[in-house]
């Protein structure tokens, strides 16, 4: 047991750890021996990994050992290893997935540096205009523009407050499965979420089927996962529908939670291990599509911010210059 406060690893550290651990186990290392070698390779985390290795010798399972250092979603996914036993396959997929997510986050961060800098500069300019330049003009038209800006900001705060209230009072009280169904209805974001969720389900079903775990056994196991409400509710719903006589294909199609390819795999009458192989390819394909859609979103973010910032700057200058030109015309006319 760890008695001191632990710090969760960054995504980058998690990616390196799982990727190298998967490679070592794939090369024939036992989990215990792999952790000992990793304590040498990842010398900055030597103390932590040695602690893990000692806990493993005390019959603690891997999800419990990793719980203080990785995200809880990974701990939940690792619990499936107890069911299918394919630690190598899962760790390899997990390491590659986190590594790609880290690259996506780095790319988004790089894309946002310059736009965020522009937004900060624009806000500083807007405050300077509002506090110093506009009051000096003392012209009602100018202040009407400033009033519009204040009203827009006020409306934004009100809308944000309504959204937070709706989430706390209404959305958060819904079941996890109902929440997911609502989120899947959102434009574009719903497509991303469906691909991501479908990828997770397909990956674990693939590993389970490839290692001979039957569908009924999977559902019964998931029904007991109280630490994962979404998984538990989905398994309970699946159990009820199958008891009514519905097929798995009908269940997957009607749920609208997964990509269409997932249901199609079960229509072909293949053996369980072949279904597992196909599901693994579907999982990788879904994640590739997820990345493509995410990249499309990244491409749109920066130009959109530039357009908004440019529009605000032009509007500020119009607020300043329009009354000045009006005064000049009045002077020339007199």
UniProtKB/TrEMBL annotation:
Membrane topology classification: Multi-pass membrane protein
Start and end residues of each Type II secretion system protein GspF domain: 17-135, 204-323
Any one of the GO CC terms: plasma membrane
Compartments it resides in: Cell membrane
Coarse class of the protein's main subcellular location: membrane
PANTHER family (alphabetical): GENERAL SECRETION PATHWAY PROTEIN, TYPE II SECRETION SYSTEM PROTEIN F-RELATED
Protein family per UniProt: Belongs to the GSP F family.
Protein name per UniProt: Competence protein ComGB
Organism, scientific name: Weissella oryzae (strain DSM 25784 / JCM 18191 / LMG 30913 / SG25)
């Amino acid at each position: 047991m760890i008695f001191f406060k632990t710090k969760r690893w960054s995504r980058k550290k998690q990616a390196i750890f799982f990727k190298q651990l998967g490679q070592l186990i794939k090369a024939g290392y036992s989990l215990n021996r792999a952790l000992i070698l990793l304590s040498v390779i990842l010398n900055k985390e030597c103390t932590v990994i040695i602690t893990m290795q000692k806990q493993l010798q005390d019959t603690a399972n891997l999800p419990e050992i990793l719980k203080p250092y990785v995200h809880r979603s990974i701990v939940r996914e690792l619990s499936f290893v107890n069911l299918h036993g394919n630690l190598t396959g899962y760790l390899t997929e997990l390491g590659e997935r986190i590594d790609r997510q880290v690259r996506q986050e780095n790319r988004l961060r790089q894309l946002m540096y310059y736009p965020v800098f522009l937004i900060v500069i624009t806000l500083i300019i807007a405050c300077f205009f509002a506090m110093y330049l506009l009051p000096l003009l003392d012209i009602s038209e100018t202040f009407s523009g400033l009033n519009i800006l204040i009203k827009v900001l006020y409306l934004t705060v009100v809308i944000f407050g309504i959204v937070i209230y709706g989430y706390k009072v209404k959305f958060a009280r819904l079941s996890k499965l109902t929440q997911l169904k609502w989120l899947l209805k959102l434009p574009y974001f719903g497509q991303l979420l469906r691909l991501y969720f479908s990828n997770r389900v397909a990956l674990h079903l693939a590993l389970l089927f490839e290692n001979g775990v039957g569908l009924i056994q999977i559902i019964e196991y998931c029904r007991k996962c109280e630490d994962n409400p979404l998984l538990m509710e989905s398994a309970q719903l699946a159990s009820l529908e199958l008891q009514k006589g519905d097929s798995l294909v009908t269940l997957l199609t009607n749920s609208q939670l997964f990509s269409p390819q997932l249901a199609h795999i079960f229509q072909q009458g293949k053996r369980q291990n072949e279904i597992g192989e196909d599901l693994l390819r579907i999982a990788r394909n879904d994640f590739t599509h997820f990345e493509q859609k995410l990249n499309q979103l990244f491409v749109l973010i920066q130009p959109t911010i530039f357009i908004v910032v440019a529009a605000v700057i032009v509007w500020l200058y119009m607020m300043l210059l329009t009354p000045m030109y009006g005064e000049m015309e009045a002077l020339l006319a007199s």
